[in-house]
Amino acid sequence: MLQRPRRNRQSAVIRSMVEENRLSVKDMMFPLFVMEGQKTQTEISSMPGIYRFTLDLLLAEIESCVKLGIQSFALFPQIPESKKDSMASESYKKGNIYIESIYQISQRFPEISLLTDVAMDPYSSDGHDGIVQDGQILNDETLPVLAKMAIAQAQAGSKLIGPSDMMDGRVGFLRQALDEAGFSQVGIMAYTAKYASAFYGPFRDALESAPKFGDKKTYQMNPANRREALIEAELDEMEGADFLMVKPALAYLDIISLLKENSHLPIAAYNVSGEYAMVKAAAQNGWIDGEKAMLESLLSIKRAGAQVILTYFAKEFAQLKLA
Ligand code: PBG
Q1: Disulfide-capable partner of 33 in 52, 54, 127, 131 (CB 3.0 to 4.6 Å)?
Q2: What is the mean pLDDT of residues 88-95?
Q3: Hey, which residues are catalytic here?
Q4: Cβ neighbour number for residue 26 with a 10 Å cutoff
């Protein structure tokens, strides 16, 4: 035998020397949830270890994450049911909890990167990402609402917006709206290949944002499709996206790798709430080693080609004493 692959596995030093991918906290973006009120944090029951914070406590949480080396965050709001309506008009109201949070976070932590969410569902009484009429999700009518939201966020200090809605043409529409409003430096992380997935369940618990009727299959992608992700990627790239995102991550590693090979833009992957919940649930039952399963799944996302990993594990990862 001339080739014996085991020779390069025989000691920890050699294994480390030939290691092709290594995780760093710098790869990660930590999603956070904000809610109205004061001095309160509520654990999300389907996401052990993840909380909704009122803004005062959220600022303290970000500070502790920054001390651990986390540089990058994503933010989502939980909006009281009484403020939701069919047009998501709360979403761009001055001083709403989300806009206020963006303002305070960017004032207090100018050095971090904060991805701010552009989508109607947290504010929609229908729980959908677009305007609903007669049971249909309207596309073109939704775009101006998204643009108002994006501009309100940019005015509050956002430097990176994440349209998570999957309406056609929204990246180009938002790019133009931001440019015309003088925000040509605000970037767009496009949710490019966002699939209609069962793995969003715990996130919808966190936001109380589940659709009130039907599902999201007329706008989010069919999990059976791979080539269609290339169409979405080409469009987002032509429309001016700065990042392409694949979501969820673990069940879609092939899509991450496909986009990586077919685009020169940085690729992000969203290791979503259900993927987090599965590892946590199994670990709490003593069925798997949670820490090792976390590291292995994060590594698989990086190996597939993601340069940015949005993950609820970011803080836990940052707290590990890795050599
Ligand atoms: C909706 C949105 C969803 C997530 C982020 N933005 C869920 C959905 O499409 O219903 C899911 C994130 C997660 O599960 O962690 N705009």
Answers
A1: 52
A2: 96
A3: 194, 247
A4: 10
Q: For the chain, how many structural domains are there in total?
A: 1
- Assess if residue 45 is contained within a domain: yes
Residues 6+ apart with CB under 8 A from 212: 125, 126, 127, 128
pTM attached to this predicted model: 0.97
Smallest CA separation from ligand 1 atom 16, residue: 164
In whole angstroms, give the CA distance from residue 173 to residue 102: 22
From 200, 212, 311, the mutation candidate for ligand 1 (largest count of ligand atoms within 8 A of CB) is: 200
Q: State pLDDT tens for residues 29-87.
A: 999 999 999 999 999 999 999 999 999 999 999 999 999 999 999 999 999 999 999 99
* pLDDT grade for 187, boundaries at 50, 70 and 90: very high
Task: Report how far apart, in Å, the C-alpha atoms of 311 and of each of 158, 218, 241 are.
Answer: 20, 26, 21
Partners of 42 in beta bridges: 52
Please indicate, yes or no, if residue 148 is contained in any of the structural domains: yes
